[in-house]
């Protein structure tokens, strides 16, 4: 497709803000193969991925460690150049138009800050304003909104190094939004946060998406992030898109299981109950797996009838577990992605 004179893809569909067609990234790595000999090997970090994200969508991008998520995000921001395929964000070729694209996107990495460590938040934000040349009025309005909704008022004069992880994360999210980006990439935005901070971040992101229509691509290992924020989820593994659809569908494809953790009053033989199987016994504690789609209430009632129950809790399946089950069932690579 021909690019216009300003580098913007003339034919870009306005509704598809992010477009990937057969995108690949191959790294060449040199490995030691003896005392003097080194061999070259190719790592196909992203292996022919195609998807579209429409303006205003909030999509989860998940997969096990080393699946290719960060490499995809780096290509979407223009930090890395694809080895093959076609990629457009807001009509731009990210690697070619990195500077201009930077004004349209915001990026938050949970594991590291983009803020200035020694500066108070307020000064970091002033630098962001200058970097992106945000008009003063717009900057002030955006800052006020973020400060209000992310509860940053009391933190603005605190140096970043003194902020807690949750405070710093909220500070980072605000910094990524001061220039009104169309797209926000979030890489593990709730990692290491306590329950209250997680809830604050999630509520903010939901409101941001609903009120301003900001398109969000979210990478996370926390299935609750996805459940609470994303209607659509894409699963990547070994550089390939394995699933693209609703989260509920992913549970069905993987036939995922929840775990009921039962603390008995005393050590007992493995619990035998219809609708669940005991997968682990450690002293008076037992773990029972049951289908994620089933209700836990009747199961709990049956166990309480027959066993001396002291306490109970339920563990949701994690993403790795769901993906592992997709593989085990041989449905990976089936018709779901596309
Ligand atoms: N610069 C690089 N040089 C060589 N190999 C790389 C490079 N960057 C990534 N890789 C490899 O590409 C593959 C995908 O890595 P990537 O960081 O994209 O995965 P990820 O899904 O983000 O994982 P995680 O959840 O652990 O962050 C891995 O095998 C990784 O070792």
UniProtKB/TrEMBL annotation:
It is a peripheral membrane protein. It holds the Pfam family ABC_tran. It is found in: Cell membrane. Coiled coil: none annotated. One of its GO terms (molecular function) is ATP hydrolysis activity. The keyword ATP-binding applies. Residues 18-263 form the ABC transporter domain. It comes from the Bacteria. InterPro entries: AAA+_ATPase, ABC_transporter-like_ATP-bd, ABC_transporter_ATP-binding, P-loop_NTPase. SUPFAM superfamilies: P-loop containing nucleoside triphosphate hydrolases (SSF52540). The keyword Transport applies. Keywords: Antibiotic resistance, ATP-binding, Nucleotide-binding, Transport. Its main location: membrane. One of its GO terms (biological process) is response to antibiotic. GO terms for cellular component: plasma membrane. PANTHER family: ABC TRANSPORTER ATP-BINDING PROTEIN, ABC-TRANSPORT PROTEIN, ATP-BINDING COMPONENT. This is Methionine ABC transporter ATP-binding protein. It comes from Streptomyces marincola.
């Amino acid at each position: 497709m021909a690019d216009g004179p300003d580098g913007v893809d003339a034919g870009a569909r306005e509704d598809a803000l992010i477009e990937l067609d057969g995108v690949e990234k191959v790294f060449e790595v040199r490995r030691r193969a003896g005392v003097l000999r080194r061999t070259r090997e190719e790592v196909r970090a992203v292996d022919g991925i195609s998807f579209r994200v429409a303006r205003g969508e909030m999509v989860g991008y998940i997969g096990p460690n080393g699946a290719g998520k960060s490499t995809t995000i780096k290509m979407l921001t223009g930090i890395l150049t694809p080895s093959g395929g076609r990629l457009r964000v807001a009509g731009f070729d990210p690697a070619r138009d990195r500077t201009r694209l930077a004004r349209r996107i915001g990026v938050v990495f949970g594991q590291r800050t983009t803020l200035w460590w020694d500066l108070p938040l307020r000064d970091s934000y002033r630098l962001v304003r200058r970097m992106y040349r945000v008009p003063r009025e717009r900057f002030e309005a955006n800052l006020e909104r973020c400060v209000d909704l992310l509860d940053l008022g009391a933190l603005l004069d605190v140096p970043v190094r003194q902020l807690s992880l949750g405070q710093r994360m909220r500070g980072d999210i605000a910094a990524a939004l001061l220039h009104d980006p169309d797209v926000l990439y979030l890489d593990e935005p709730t990692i290491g946060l306590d329950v209250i901070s997680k809830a604050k971040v999630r509520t903010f992101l939901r409101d941001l998406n609903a009120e301003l229509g900001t398109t969000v691509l979210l990478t996370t290992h926390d299935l609750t992030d996805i459940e609470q924020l994303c209607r659509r989820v894409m699963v990547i593994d070994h550089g390939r898109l394995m699933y693209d659809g609703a989260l509920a569908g992913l549970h069905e494809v993987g036939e995922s299981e929840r775990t009921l953790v039962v603390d008995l009053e005393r050590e007992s033989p493995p619990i035998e109950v219809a609708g669940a199987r005991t997968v682990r016994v450690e002293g008076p504690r037992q773990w029972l797996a049951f289908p994620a789609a089933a209700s836990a209430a009747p199961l709990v009632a049956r166990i309480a009838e027959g066993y001396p129950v002291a306490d109970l809790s339920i563990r949701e399946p994690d993403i790795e577990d769901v993906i592992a089950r997709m593989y085990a069932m041989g449905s990976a690579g089936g018709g779901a992605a596309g």
